[in-house]
């Protein structure tokens, strides 16, 4: 089987997506629902939890309530809720933003937003960002200068209705295109500074993709939808952060990475850990917990959210090596735990980059050069035009 490797960016750089729907789009046009949770204090990170419910029964809901008491999460991303208009979904201390699957059983997504933390959560209910062809829910988490765009999405495979009839292949293709369009639009809103961060979470059901190295997406089985999805993340400079298998086929046997966490910068993610299958089932999707660091917290670790990039080709690596050799690593890292050692190393590394590697500015509206447009091809094109 042929294996295709597509490299993804781990930084936050500019890109432009042509979409007429973005013209005239304003922040106010996206916040038109009035459904929100208001908080007054500021926080340094967003504590998150994610799980596949496969029907959020009263027993599983009680399990979530216990988790919220124990861990005090700021936000819960839950998919395959199987909610309908009669479902009871309350968790004390949380507001539930949800989107149920209409007409058919199954599916559905929701975001539980805490009203006891340091964020103001507002649901986004706008057709320009929400497509009725996608099972997704959007909201905004605000704290201090941060305004983070959050999404919970479920991309099912071919849907079979209660009568056993499968949806058409064309319907599935339309859904895939709408998902790409939705991600591109959200990313563009961040690039245009309408929002300061992006956190997309969901079950994308791409079993044909291998994310075991979070810097690369390996296309194991070539499909149009998988290739377009990887291209969307790559050209948008978005990072997919889950690199461990998330589906448990049976006890101690994990298979695919179906559940993804996508951010505008890898540095935002901290303490990503797998958890038990919700409901204690032997097979199903693992739950996940993590912390999404706010920019003030990120600065403590020396990370950069860049509108410029290092010109590595012109770096003075002789002087940089001498700088590293001058560091007494044993003294600097002695008696430090892994977290503090990592923090210290990043500070030294970033200092070296700032001192010995020049920068080039990144134009947020620059066009992405197609990978097939090589220097030789550009030379031939110029010769032909002359």
Automatic annotation (TrEMBL):
Keyword Chaperone part of the UniProt annotation: no
Hey, what's the signal peptide range on this chain? none
Per the UniProt entry, what is one GO biological process?
Answer: larval heart development
Put simply, this protein is called RNA-directed DNA polymerase from mobile element jockey-like
Listed GO molecular functions?
Answer: RNA-directed DNA polymerase activity
Listed A to Z, the keywords are: Nucleotidyltransferase, RNA-directed DNA polymerase, Transferase
Task: Choose one Gene Ontology CC annotation of this protein and give it.
Answer: extracellular matrix
InterPro entries named in the record: Endo/exonu/phosph_ase_sf
Q: Which Gene3D superfamilies match?
A: Endonuclease/exonuclease/phosphatase
Q: Which organism is it from?
A: Brachionus plicatilis (Marine rotifer)
């Amino acid at each position: 089987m042929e294996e295709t490797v597509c490299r993804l960016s781990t930084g936050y750089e500019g890109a432009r997506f042509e979409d007429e729907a973005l013209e005239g789009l304003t922040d106010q046009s996206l916040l038109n629902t009035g459904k929100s949770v208001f908080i007054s204090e500021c926080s340094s990170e967003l504590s998150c939890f994610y799980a596949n419910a496969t029907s959020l029964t009263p027993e599983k809901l009680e399990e979530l309530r216990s988790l919220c008491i124990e861990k005090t999460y700021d936000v819960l991303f839950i998919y395959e809720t199987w909610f309908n208009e009669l479902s009871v979904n309350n968790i004390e201390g949380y507001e539930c933003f949800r989107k149920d699957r209409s007409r058919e059983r199954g599916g559905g997504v929701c975001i539980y937003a805490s009203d006891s933390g340091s964020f103001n959560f507002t649901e986004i209910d706008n057709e320009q960002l929400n497509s009725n062809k996608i099972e997704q829910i959007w909201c905004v988490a605000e704290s201090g200068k941060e305004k983070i765009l959050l999404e919970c999405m479920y991309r099912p495979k071919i849907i079979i209705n209660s009568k056993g009839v499968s949806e058409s292949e064309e319907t599935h293709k339309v859904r895939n295109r709408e998902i790409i369009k939705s991600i591109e639009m959200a990313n563009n809103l961040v690039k245009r500074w309408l929002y300061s961060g992006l956190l997309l979470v969901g079950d994308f059901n791409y079993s044909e993709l291998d994310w075991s190295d979070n810097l690369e997406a390996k296309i194991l089985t070539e499909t149009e939808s998988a290739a377009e999805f990887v291209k969307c993340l790559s050209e948008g400079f978005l990072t997919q952060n889950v690199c461990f298998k998330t589906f448990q086929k049976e006890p101690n046997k994990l298979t695919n990475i179906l559940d993804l966490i996508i951010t505008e910068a890898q540095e935002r993610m901290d303490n990503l850990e797998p958890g038990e299958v919700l409901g204690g089932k032997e097979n199903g999707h693992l739950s996940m917990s993590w912390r999404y660091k706010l920019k003030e917290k990120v600065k403590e670790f020396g990370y950069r959210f860049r509108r410029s990039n290092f010109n590595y080709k012109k770096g003075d690596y002789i002087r940089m090596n001498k700088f590293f050799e001058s560091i007494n690593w044993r003294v600097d890292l002695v008696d430090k735990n892994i977290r503090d050692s990592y923090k210290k190393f990043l500070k030294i590394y970033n200092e070296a980059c700032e001192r010995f590697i020049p920068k080039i500015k990144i134009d947020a509206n620059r066009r992405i050069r197609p990978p097939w447009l090589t220097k030789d091809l550009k030379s031939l094109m110029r010769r032909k035009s002359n």
